[in-house]
Specification:
Distance between the termini: 39 Å
Radius of gyration: 16 Å
Largest sheet: 5 strands, antiparallel
Number of strands: 7
Oligomer: single chain
Structural class: alpha+beta
Strand content: 15-25%
């Protein structure tokens, strides 16, 4: 992989893996046919993880980020906020993110906060 053709987030992940002494190839999973694939799919708007979680990419947030906001790459040039957790991670998000903000469920958090962070109407 050459950094000139990589998505900025992918290039940053590869650089960070190298800095901590990991081989970036270890960050890939092997499919049933033996091919290696990334554990995520990067698109201009979305990051979709192998598990099914999905986050929306953005450069900055319109309101200050709170502890309950499920943001990845916080403070970096390009960040992302979760749009939906997969079934495997939803319980974790409910317990360790939504409840920090006083919400009972992920859906409550999403209705109350997500549109504020992204600066879009609900």
């Amino acid at each position: 992989m050459t950094p000139t053709v990589l998505d900025p987030i992918l290039a940053r992940m590869e650089a960070q893996a190298t800095l901590v002494g990991m081989d970036f190839e270890d960050c890939l999973y092997v499919g049933t046919d033996g091919q290696k694939f990334p554990r995520w799919k990067l698109e201009p708007r979305w990051i979709t993880f192998e598990c099914g979680c999905r986050a929306e990419r953005c450069r900055d947030f319109k309101v200050p980020v709170q502890r309950c906001d499920p943001v990845i790459f916080l403070g970096l040039p390009e960040q992302a906020v979760y749009d939906q957790p997969c079934h495997k991670h939803e319980a974790f998000v409910n317990t360790h993110r939504a409840r920090y903000g006083g919400y009972v469920t992920w859906q409550q958090w999403k209705i109350a906060r997500r549109h504020l962070l992204l600066g879009v109407s609900a």
